[in-house]
Amino acid sequence: MKISVDISLYPLKEVYKEPIHAFIAALDAEEGVEVEPNRMSTHIHGEYSIIMKLLEREIYSVFKEIPDSAFVIKLIGHDREGAYAK
Fold it and tell me: How many domains does the chain divide into?
């Protein structure tokens, strides 16, 4: 089953851009997952099992490195890739 995810990372520290860029790069490096970053959040599209394992691994990594971080995540039960195009 293909899904879409809308995710935002908020590292609660002064230097916040680098962890966000690193998180997006880690998502984008995953084979079989489409990643669309934008100004407020990042959209991820792909197979449910791949995305959920990816999110579990990468969110854990962020919390380990920066415990004072917050994520906002929306899960959509089908692939909305391209639905946000202008």
Answer: 1
Q: Give residue 57's domain range.
A: 2-76
Burial of 9 (0-12, 13-18, 19+ CB in 10 A): buried
Flag whether 81 is in a domain.
no
Cα separation of 7 and 66, whole Å?
17
**This model's pTM is above 0.85:** yes
Interatomic CA distance for residues 53 and 38, integer angstroms: 22
Classified as helix, coil or strand, 6 is strand
Give per-residue pLDDT as tens, 38-72: 999 999 999 999 999 999 999 999 999 999 999 99
